[in-house]
Specification:
7-stranded antiparallel sheet; mainly beta; 6-stranded antiparallel sheet; Jelly Rolls; single chain; 2 helices
Length: 432
Amino acid sequence: MTDNRQRYLTGFGNDFATEAEQGALPEGQNSPQKPPLGLYAEKFSGTAFTAPKARNFRSWFYRIRPSVTTIGFEPMKAPPVETAPLTTVTPPDPMRWDPFPVPDAPADFIDGLFTVAGCGDADAQAGVGIHIYCANRSMTDRFFSTSDGELLLVPDTGTLVLHTECGILDVPPGFIGVVPRGMKFRVELPDGPSRGYVCENYGAMLELPERGPIGSDGLANSRDFQAPVAAYDDREGDFELVSKLGGHFFAAGIGHSPLDVVAWHGTLYPYRYELDRFNTIGSISYDHPDPSIFTVLTSQSDTPGTANVDFVVFPPRWLVMEDTFRPPWYHRNVMSEYMGLVKGVYDAKTGGGFVPGSSSLHHCMVPHGPDADAWQRASDASLAPEKLADTMAFMFESRYLIRPSERALAAPQRQPGYARAWQGLTRQFRKP
């Protein structure tokens, strides 16, 4: 594997061109009769050919062997990954889970995947699957791709090194990594046992949200996203390619690494983003704004302004609002919200039970908000400027009902006493 991991291409949605060997990129056309260096030209399309220009994503690969040589799949024993639509009976109660443990038995990224929740319908390219990975060994001679959706990876323990068709991405905790639908990759674990969250986005590709009145800067800035430079894997041997399609897993034995792209150019590629670079927007007068101001990436649905999925982050930030209840207010929301914690303490859950690696699920119109401890602290606090320093929480939010999986409902990590977080909210009413 040629290794240029210290170098990245910067920008979101840019049209990049990169080669691991000089002269591998053809000049002036995409598919010449004989591409340079004896390579094969292959187009990788993440959207329909006729999609509008601003949302048309594709790249050209120049590879040692075309992907068509890696066929002959057979059904395999799959990890406990479910694909929407899920049919679970979903009670109208908030839910929360303790961190899931990394198993003692050997488990790579594929083996360690399991589904916590999902929504929509993957066949209709709507909604998401929400998974956890708990892995303890690297994928060396095993590769993976899913045709059901793009993957948004959020590590909370251990660095992921993603070896992809486009090159190599290091994704430590505090970063996210995004792998396009259908892209082949493998995962190395340089830090050993690793755990994190996965959003398998069945819908429109993730993009930066519109900023509206915020203007041209703020939130996640395009220049802070990083894509890999070309780095190819020219290995022959006994390898396995695992593919997910229509919710089912298949495996094929192959005689060479499928990560043999020597050069590529285009607008469809994996990328990473450091969450600490998020430029948080907030109130400097009064009131707590809607959490939509924390949107890093969004996948649009067919209803303007109503997301297939939003990826929202709650990073370190200053709170300065006057005469304001500063944590998120109590609310019911037409959107469903799945939340995780990467580090520190989330300011709406100071009473315990929500630690790094935990997750919670609040369905459509299910009431939720600060626990009793956070309410008391915020109600009595002296409203001096306050820095929330040690924190990094996130949310996958969707217009579709996020249903928990049967495994998640029955998991010993599910907290049966989550509702007790609000039992201290006693009557405060006083007649005038």
